[in-house]
Design goal:
- The protein is mainly α.
- It has one domain.
- Helix 2 runs antiparallel to helix 3.
- The mean pLDDT is about 85.
């Protein structure tokens, strides 16, 4: 499955999260202490807060984009193609 099908998330951080998970797994296998440092760094309140903010705001943008596309589709079908 692709990243988008597997996670089924609306936010735009799906790919960066997948890359970060891959990097963490690789580093953790080779250098467990560095892996632990990365895991600890990911839990710093500033990083967690920033990540949550980005997820929340990009989710809003995704919803707005979906709504806009639905309106454009409806407009196209009614005004251009003449469907009611």
């Amino acid at each position: 499955k692709s990243i988008f099908e597997r996670d089924n998330r609306r936010d735009w951080l799906v790919i960066p999260d997948a890359v970060a998970a891959y990097v963490y797994e690789t580093v953790n296998k080779m250098f467990p202490k560095v892996g632990q440092f990365l895991a600890d760094a990911a839990q710093i309140p500033v990083i967690v807060g920033t990540r949550n903010f980005l997820i929340r705001e990009t989710s809003k943008l995704s919803i707005l984009a979906e709504q806009m596309m639905e309106k454009v589709k409806t407009l196209w079908n009614t005004k251009v193609l003449g469907y009611y």
